[in-house]
Amino acid sequence: MPEKTGIVPFWKNYDRKTVLRFARMAEDLGYDSIWIPEAWAYEQFQLLAEIALATRTIKVATGIANVFSRSPALLAMSAATLDEISEGRVILGLGTSGRIVIENFHGIPYQKPLTRLRDTVGILRALWRGERLAPEMSTLFQLRHFKLEMTPRRSDIPIYVASLQEKAIRDIGRMADGWIPTFWPYRQLEDGIALLREGATEAGRANTRIEVASFVGVVPLDDVGAARALLKPLVSFYIGGMGVYYHALFCRYGFQENADRVRELYQAGDRTQAAAAVSDELIDAIAICGPAAYCRERLAEWREHGLGSALLNLPTGVPPELTEQFLRTMAPRH
To answer: pLDDT tier at 334 (50, 70, 90 boundaries)?
Structure first.
């Protein structure tokens, strides 16, 4: 099976025309997919439609659509419409996001996130198959009668789910096509894969292939210290400012003292010191930093630990020429 590599532009300071150029370039270089994030800036489905119309083969993916800000029916319509526009190239990446974003930005109570995710996936599948909605499809949504009055190009649009919690990862095994771990230490990917298999077996899907598509921070610089330093502010933000999940993940895999210190500094308002406190060992467990040849070798090692599709975060805050150099350096056909 060919190695699959995707790209992920950052959601802040997103430049539409530049990303469009990167998407075309990535397609020419053999990248498999482009994953457009959504936080509190651009809306992702419109951006993906623009990219789909400007490309031919690269898959267009939501990275990630949360299940609170859109109803399951709207997600079903959006994904099916984009799949038609792209001629069957959509991957629907889903997640629960977190309480801070959902309640403070979208103004929606963050209640029963895993149940909402599970029900959403079931409703999506039913609508794409042409079924009518019925009350028994969900314990959260009051559904009846309606069905999609369009025929989706595919009734089995791939659904990938981003999650870090063990219960949720088992659910992915029961219902989804792929798992998107973020900042999961690569040597412990087997732990998550085991949970996927447990869920799949329980659901009678033991023979179903569930792809591991991980967001991977790669910084190909000869100066390893400088490369790590570029990632540390982002990691500290996820530890201190993105709820409890990432902090808990790092604690679970042996970085509790470091994660506690970073969170303490970040929440005290000392963002610079919080970033500096992120240890080199933590960065090396969840990202790849070093000379270009080393980065390619290490990415191959990640694949040996179970990574199926490497979703590479594009550099942020650099001239476009450096991003183009990055795309060439890490290209699958390099």
So the answer is: very low
Q: Specify whether the CB–CB gap between 127 and 76 falls below 8 A.
A: yes
CA distances from 118 to 88, 100, 114, 141, 161 (A): 24, 21, 6, 12, 10
Banded pLDDT at 283 (limits 50, 70, 90): very high
Nearest residue to 301 (alpha-carbon basis) of 314, 320, 311, 288: 288
Does the structure show a pLDDT above 60 at 277? Answer: yes
Dihedrals phi, psi of 67, to nearest 5 degrees:
-95, 10
Kindly list the distances between the CA atom of residue 185 and the CA atoms of 191, 209, 216, in Å, as whole numbers in the listed order. Answer: 10, 22, 10
CB atoms within 10 A of CB 132: 13
Distance CA 4, CA 190 (A): 19
**What are the pLDDT digits (tens) for 229-263?**
999 999 999 999 887 889 999 999 999 999 999 99
Best CA proximity match to 247, nearest among 188, 271, 238, 217 = 238
Cis peptide before 64 (omega within 30 of 0): yes
Inter-residue contact 11 to 42 (CB < 8 Å): yes
Q: Judge whether 76 and 49 are in contact, CB under 8 Å.
A: no
Please state, rounded to an integer, the average pLDDT across all residues of the chain. 96
Joined together, the tokens standing for residue 48 give 């993906």
User: What tokens appear for 246 in the block?
Assistant: 């990432």
Residue 147, CB-side half-sphere exposure with 13 Å CA sphere: 11
Nearest C-alpha neighbor of 52 from the set 91, 13, 14:
91
CA–CA distance, 205 with 188 (Å, rounded to integer): 23
The strand ranges marked E within the chain are 4-8, 33-36, 59-62, 65-66, 90-95, 159-162, 178-180, 211-220, 287-290, 309-313
The predicted model scores a pTM of: 0.96
